[in-house]
Amino acid sequence: MTKCINICLSKTLKKIRPLRLKEERNCEYVNFYRFQFKRLVTFLMSCCIIFSTFSYASEHCQTEAPPAVLTKDIALNRLLQCNLEIIDSRRFIIANEANLTQAGETQNPNLSIGVGNINPKLGIGAGSYFDKTIDTSVRYEQLIERGNKRNLRVKSAQGIVSASKQDVLETERQQSIVLLSAMVDVAASNERINLLSQMVDLYKETLRANSIRLENGDLSPLDAERQRIDAHRAQIDLHQAQSDAKVAQLTLVTLLDWGHQTDALTVDSAILDVEPIEAQQFDLASRTDVKAAKLRIEAASQQLELARAQLKSDITAGVQYDHWPTSGNNATGTGDTISFTLGFPLTVNNHYEGEIAIATSNYDAAKEALVHIEANAKSEWQRMNADMGNAQENLQLLQKELLPHAEDVARTVELGYAKGALGLLDLLEARRILRQTRLDTLSARASLARSIFTRNQSISANNIN
User: Fold this and answer.
1) 3-state DSSP call for residue 133?
2) What is the 8-class DSSP label of residue 283?
3) Cα(461)–Cα(293) distance, rounded to whole angstroms?
4) Predicted confidence (pLDDT) per residue in 114-152, tens digit
């Protein structure tokens, strides 16, 4: 960034150096360009800082490789730096800050230079320019705003800048929820692959044992074929789980802008065991979208006041210098004179009803938007608590009731089938029930983790953690 600023300054100084030679001849000319030079340097430094910030983020995101195991903290830190949705939302802050600078600027003055009263028949006389019978005028005009218009513009622009910053925090919150849900999906997919791989390995051992029993006549060909079909079904489930894992990894690397490095991405399985943040009551005022809506109401209110302030006319103040010397051919010259003027529009045709009506409509729309956002926030909070409660109940039922019973039944049937007390259909049914119960338990863990992350990120809206 420093190198960029030095280059910008050096190039600008080369263009400004010739002005120093004119300083002794025309101080006002040089002072004008000095002012323009300061504005140019400020603009170039801002551009360099903005460009360096985004270029650094882009280069950092492209060169950094995924860690061996992706944890929650690493993922959230990279999300803030590299997520494209968050980066795009931050650009609106820069644009709104530029609007704020523009809103606070004073109107530029107007300088007019003219000549008049030139008589082609009598001529302009001899001597230097200021002795010639030419009426030379120099006029300077400045618009003076009334009705506190400039402060109203600044306050409105400040509200929009503050609202855009809250929008960035809201985007970060939403993207963090999407990220953590994607991490849960990846971790759950990997766990599902492990469970199904164990089941496939069990079927492989069973098929190897069946081939021996089939040769010895201890197993009928029909029963062997049934077990082979069930083993193929488990293999298909494993392939589907591997495919789902690829999709989940692709979603995750897209959120973190890691290109297509899906094979190098592994999520820490501890992501499935998150604890909820304690919060008895929902603090509506802490929501970033609610804050942004309130700030937009304030900005719309300032815009309404600004529209009403148009009824107080601005004044254009002017001062004029005239030089019209007398000569032998011009006895009516006035010499050097100074005049002052004040100009203001007459509000006889346009009373700014349209501007006031539009500003009033925008103000009412901003208030209605706040009502809708607050209602949605309350509804979302209730839904998040309901989802988390249901997920906790389902997981508790599976872990304490269904899964232990399914494991006991499977062990009993496996032992009974090995001793010949139970048939093949009982064995296959027990294995399918155990497999499905384990997968349901894993899905319940993932659902609970997603609901807890959604709720936690909504509670800590201003601090992604």
Assistant:
1) coil
2) -
3) 15
4) 887 777 666 666 767 676 778 889 999 999 999 999 999
Residue with tokens 């082609």: 120
Residue 80 CB neighbours (<10 A):
15
3-state secondary structure of 439: helix
C-beta separation of 79 from 257 below 8 A: no
Sequence-distant (6+) residues with CB within 8 A of 174 are: none
What is the sign, positive or negative, of the torsion defined by CA atoms of 462, 463, 464, 465? negative
2-21 b/e (C-beta count within 10 Å ≥ 16 → b):
eebbeebeeeeeeeeeebee
Distance of CA 134 to the CA centre of its chain: 63
Measured from the Cβ of residue 75, the count of other Cβ atoms closer than 10 Å reads 22
Q: In the numeric block, which tokens belong to residue 161?
A: 């800048």
> CA neighbours within 13 Å on the CB side: how many for 410?
18
Contacts of 371 (CB under 8 A, 6+ apart): none
Q: How far is CA 412 from CA 204, 407, 426, 434, in A?
A: 20, 9, 10, 12
0.85 surpassed by pTM: no
Nearest residue to 435 (alpha-carbon basis) of 198, 109, 205: 198
Pairing of strands 135-144, 315-324: antiparallel
Strands 315-324 and 335-343: antiparallel
- For residue 340, give the DSSP letter: E
Residue linked to tokens 């006002």? 28
